[in-house]
Amino acid sequence: MYRELVRRGLVIGEVGRGTFVRAAPGRPALAEPAAAPVDLELNFPVLPEHSGVLADSLRAVLRPDVLAESIRAVGVAGTSDSRIAAAALLSRGGWTPEPDSILFAGNGRQAIAAAIAALVRPGERLGVEEITYAVVKGIAERLGVTFVPLAVDSLGVTPDALSSAGLLRAVYLQPALHNPLGITMDASRRCAVAEVLTSRGIALIEDTTYGFLHDDPPLWPLVRHAVLVDSLSKRIAPGLTLGFAVTTPDLRPAVTTAVRSGAWSPQRFALTAMTTWATDGTATRLRTDKRADARARQELAAHHLAGFDIQADPRSYHLWWRLPAHWRPDTFTAAASRAGIALTPAASFAVPPAPVPNAVRLALAAPPLPTLTTALTHLAALATTPDPFTD
Question: Where in the chain is the domain with CATH 3.40.640.10?
Answer without folding.
Answer: 70-279
